[in-house]
Amino acid sequence: MIPFVKTHALGNDFILVEQSSKVPADHSELARRICDRYFGIGADGLILWQAAGDSFTGRIFNCDGSEAGCSGNGLRCVAAYLIESRRWQKDDIRLETISGVYRLRRTGRQYEADMGQPQLSPDTIPFIPPAPIERIVDYPLRANGHVFAITACSTGNPHCSLFVDELDDPYIEHVGPLLERHPAFPHRTNVEFIHVLNDREIEVAFWERGVGRTYASGTGSCGATVASILNKKTGRQVRVHTKAGNLTVEWPENGRLKLTSTANIVAEGNYLEA
Predict the structure, then answer these.
(1) Which residues contact residue 72 at a Cβ distance below 8 angstroms, ignoring those fewer than 6 apart?
(2) How far out from the chain centre does Cα 11 lie?
(3) Fewest CB atoms within 10 Å of the CB: 35, 45, 199, 272?
């Protein structure tokens, strides 16, 4: 029996489990089973967290069992649970994942996350170009006989963004997995489909590595914003419209990404491990 908390941030849902002796050693298998929407609890991902002095650590597993470096939505979910349950007594909290340390702050009903500086060089994404290149911006990537103009970066996870005239579901579901597993991305990649509304707002659909279509993505919203700024389509503060709500992403000149939006606690219970 494993105690759990079900959470979501704009429909991007996570199961939070405190790391303990009750948790099986095979975290990937646990993630696949507990996140199954028919035979488990159902979620896009599993986050195993534990206290570490004056901060917390977390490991994030996608529903296919693969481990993610970061999740902007997942971080807000963990922060919301720990702060609202009074497991943490302050409005500021520090969370560490395998991709780094993140600081979050409750601001009214929202949570603001310092997401660090985006990584833009190919080796830090990682992305393997056929010839040396400084940045992957409006880059012609050939896949399945087509050429896609992509912009790539890492915001804790690798991201590949492309601009579209409309968010067409069949197109997203065809191109998403094609780019996710493109050999130029040795660790696979998340894919964002961006429809620019104006110089302050974008509409984004997400294909997440190891998950598929999701209602929203925190690091994906950051990646989409970085792509929009680098391609001179928006200013440096962007409202990101997703299927289930909005996020605000700011990227000051040579500064750190700031992500702000909601996070919700849905339920608590016990997972009865077979």
Answers:
(1) 113, 115, 155, 156, 217, 218, 219, 220, 221, 222, 259
(2) 12
(3) 272
